[in-house]
Design brief:
This protein is α/β, with parallel strands linked by helices and 199 residues long. 37% of the residues lie in helices and 16% in strands. A hairpin with a 2-residue loop joins strand 8 and strand 9 (150-153).
């Protein structure tokens, strides 16, 4: 089955560890992973990885994508340089194409007003409250939350973040999804047998 690519946003100071489980297992499931930068110039992650974006943000269209992933980055906390990525997330959601945001990217979505009407989570509620956004009543104390095509998670939950993305895109379901999460989150060796049986 042919699938549209998943687009991973990359920008200076992006948290390279937050989306590794997600992109690796989406690729194993047959999704091409394409990097999208502010432009085509290389960016550098918090971990020092130099990444050459395959596409500039202005050229990214929701109709060409299965999902937009927004990792955290120091730049989300440092001003509005990444605001164009939050605006692109709005464009995706308005077109019915899902978005997944983790850590500082949730701050950018709060500033953009995208969390005002959706259940969501982040690092802690007061992190988002500092933006003055209107969605405080919809903040959920959970490892990851999905509401109407938007996945959110805090910085300590990359595995739960991946779980929600897999559920949203139908990569894993039911006991297989639960087993994947138990294996990678809880180091539950018994879950491995469930995954092997499902292959």
């Amino acid at each position: 089955m042919s699938r549209k690519p998943v687009h991973l946003a990359v920008y200076d100071t992006f948290a390279d560890w937050e989306t590794g489980h997600t992109t690796a297992y989406l690729a194993r499931a047959g999704f091409a992973i394409r990097t999208v930068g502010p432009a085509l110039e290389p960016v550098r992650s918090i971990g020092g990885l130099r990444v050459q974006p395959e596409l500039g943000l202005d050229d990214l269209r929701p109709q060409d994508s299965s999902l937009l992933i927004l990792p955290g980055a120091d730049l989300w906390d440092a001003g509005d340089r990444l605001a164009p990525f939050a605006r692109k997330a709005r464009e995706f959601l308005d077109a019915g194409v899902p978005v997944a945001a983790i850590c500082g990217a949730t701050l950018g979505l709060a500033r953009e007003g995208l969390l005002d009407e959706r259940e969501h989570t982040s690092a802690v509620s007061f992190y988002l409250a500092a933006t003055g956004y209107g969605g405080g009543e919809r903040y959920v104390e959970a490892d990851a939350v999905t509401d109407r095509g938007l996945v959110t998670a805090g910085p300590t939950e990359p595995v739960a973040f991946a779980r929600e993305v897999f559920r949203l895109l139908g990569v894993y379901e039911g006991e297989v999804l639960d087993a994947w999460y138990r294996l990678f989150h809880d180091s539950d060796a018994e879950a491995y047998a469930v995954l092997e049986k499902a292959r």
